[in-house]
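In the previous chapter we treated chains in isolation. Here, by contrast, the input contains two separate entities that must be folded as one system, with a combined length of 802 residues.
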Amino acid sequence: MELEFIKKLIIPAQTKIAMVILDGLGGLPLKPGGKTELETASTPNLDKLAVQSALGLTVPVGPGITPGSGPGHLAIFGYDPIRYEIGRGALEALGVDFELGADDVAARGNFCLLDSEGILLDRRAGRIPTVQASTLIEQLRGIKVEGVEFFIEPIKEHRFAFIMRAPGLEDTLSDSDPQRTGVPPLEIYATTSNSLRAAEFANRFIQQARNILAENASANMIMLRGFAQLPAIASYQELFKLTPAAIALNGMYRGVARLAGMEVLKVEGSSISDEFTTLEKNWNDFDFFYLHVKKTDTCGENGDFFGKVKAIEEVDELIPRLVALDPDVIIVSGDHSSPAVLKSHSWHPVPTLLYSKIVRPDGIPEFGERACLRGSLGIIPAKDVMPLALANAGRIAKYGA
Amino acid sequence: MELEFIKKLIIPAQTKIAMVILDGLGGLPLKPGGKTELETASTPNLDKLAVQSALGLTVPVGPGITPGSGPGHLAIFGYDPIRYEIGRGALEALGVDFELGADDVAARGNFCLLDSEGILLDRRAGRIPTVQASTLIEQLRGIKVEGVEFFIEPIKEHRFAFIMRAPGLEDTLSDSDPQRTGVPPLEIYATTSNSLRAAEFANRFIQQARNILAENASANMIMLRGFAQLPAIASYQELFKLTPAAIALNGMYRGVARLAGMEVLKVEGSSISDEFTTLEKNWNDFDFFYLHVKKTDTCGENGDFFGKVKAIEEVDELIPRLVALDPDVIIVSGDHSSPAVLKSHSWHPVPTLLYSKIVRPDGIPEFGERACLRGSLGIIPAKDVMPLALANAGRIAKYGA
C-alpha cells in the first residue's frame, strides 16, 4: 500500500501515539531449545500490556534482508526502505547531529597516510586519536572554494563527516578511497552529468587538504567516500497530519527522525529513564512520540546476551510511566533484530506489540518472539505498522462508500 | 497476484462455489478479555463446517484501511480494491438497482432550497418526505436535452440518483454542491477536456430543473455531486469461466455483483431464509453463488452487539440447507468488520472459512476471530480468497510444466 494512498485518507484527531523502539530487539536463543533475550527477560509490565494488545512480528526490509539502522528506522516509521535509501555519507552526517539540508551532499571522510610517491600506506592513518584528528579538522575548516560551503565534523579516530553545501548539488559521485593500499587515492568523478560541479568541488577540497596536511607524519591526506544526499521523503506532518517528536540519545536516530519531520527533543541526562522523563515533560505538546532505546542493540552487537536481557528489563520497568500518560496507541517494537549470538544485526522478524483501546486484543499474556508469532498482526512488513497505528488512533477515514 | 495471470490458467469444471458474505462480520469484544460477536454467537453448524475447513483472516484493502461496502465487496470478489474504485454517484445508482451501463455517468442528487437571490438556505430542502420528492422527480423526468438521456430515481427524502447516458461521456466533473449554505450552488465544470460535453448536459439539466421547481416552497433547486462511472472490470465469466449468480436484498450489493457479471436473482420475501430459498431454487442453473446477509452489518453499525450475535446465529441455522446442496467449495466471510463497539465499519481483519473436499483441513472446531487466527489460510488479502476457491473447485490449471 502506497503512502500516497493513505495520505488521502488521513483525518485529524485529538489522539496520541507513542512508539517505543528497542534497537535490535529481536534475538535468538543461546542454545537450540532455549529462550531469546526478550523471552528470557522478566517483563511483567510489557506482558500486562500484551494481554490487551495485538502482537505480531515485523519484517523491516524483506525476507532474509539484514537492515542497517537507516532502513530499519525508515521502515518502522512507515516508509518503504527499498525505495528510500539513506546513503553512507548522509548517515555519517546525521550521526554527528549535523542538520543536513536537501541540497547538501555528504560523504564519509578518512584521514590516511601516503608515501612520498603518493601511494597509500595506511587507509586509516594509524587510527589517529580523535583529539588529534580534531586539530587537523580545525585546519581543514580553513579551506575555501568559491560557490560552495564545506562542513567537516569529527566522528571518531580517523573518521569524519564531510558536507558540501551549494544549490543544485547532486550526489552521483565516485569514491576517492580505492579500498586498498599500494595504489594512490582516486580522483572523484561525476557518475552522471548532474554532479560535475560537485565532483570539482570535492576534488578541489581534497587538493587543498593535501597541501595543508603535507607535513603531517601520520595523516598527510584524506579520502572521501559514500557521497549521499538525504532522500526526499514526505514528513509526518504532510503525510499523517501529525505533530511528531523524537527522543533519542544517538545522533543517527535523531537524524532519521528529523528526516521524517520529527522535532528532536532535548534529553537531560543519558539514561533510558531520562528519555522517559523527556517524554513526560513534552507529552502535552505533540501527538506522536518516537522513543529510541540504544542499549539493546549495543549489547546484541557485543554478543552480550544477558546485558541485552537486562536492557529489556530496564525498559520494562519504565513502561508504567508510559502507560500512566494514557496514550491512545502504544507501539513497542524494534528497527531490526540483533541477536547476541550473532553479534550483529540480522534479518529475523522483530517482536511487535500494538496496543489501543480499539485493537482486537489477542489476550496473549507475554511479549516475546514466539508469543508474537501467535498474535493477530501476523508477520507483516514493518512499514505496515504506522497505518495500523493511525487507524487505531482514529486518524484514517473510510475508503469508498 | 494479478487477475490476468490467473485468467490464463482458468479451466472449466463441473463444480460449484458458494460464497456467503455476512456483511461487517468481524467484530471486537465489548470489554478487553471478552469475546467478539462471532465468538459469542452459538454457531454449531459453522463450527462443524470449520473442522473440515481452512480458516483464516482477510484484510479487505490494506493494513489500517477501513473499507466502504464497495471496496470491501470488490476485494472479496477478487478484484484489487485500490485499482478499481466505485465512486459515490455510481454507488447511489447501484443502490436503487439502476442498471448502470459503461457509458453512464451517475451522480448523487439532492433537492435544496434557495432564497430569492439564489443563495442556498437549506442543502437538504428540509429533508422533504420521500413521497413528495417522488412527485418532484416525476416532473424532472420531463427534462429533455438533445444528445443525452437522463434518468432520475428517488432514494430517500431529499436524495435521488441522477444518471446521464450518452456514448463517450466521462465522469471528470466537479460538484455543484458547495457543501455549505449562504452561497449559491456552483456551476459544474469539466476537470478534464474529455468531460466538457457531460458538464454541459449536467448544467443544462440543472437549469431546466430550476425553472420547473421555481414555485416550490421547500425544494426549489437541485444539486449534483460525486459524478462517477462504473470502473471497467472484467466479469466472472471472462476471468473465471464461471456462470455466477447473486442473492442480495439491498441494491448496492446487487449492483456490485452485477458489475462482476453476476446474474442478480429475484428473492421472494426479505428474510435471510428467503435468500437461502432462492439459493436452493436456482442451484442447478449456476456454478457460483454470492449470498449477501446485511443484518450483521446493520446491527454492527447500530452498536447492537447482541443483535449482531443473533443475526450470526440466524445464518448458522440456515447453513445445513447450504451444506445439503453439497457445494464443492463454501466460503463464509465478510466484506469488512463492523464491530458493534465502534458502531462503524473498521479495518480489523475478517474471519474467513474455506471449505472444500480437498482443502487441507485445520481441524479447528470453531468459527471465530481467534480461531481463524490459528487457521492455515493465515492473514491474507481478501482478493486472494477467490483464487483459493477456484483452485479448490478444480478450476485453475497447473502453472508451468
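The two ends of chain B are 19 Å apart (CA to CA). Residues 305-324 of chain B form the longest helix (20 residues). Compare these points with the single-chain example from earlier in the chapter.
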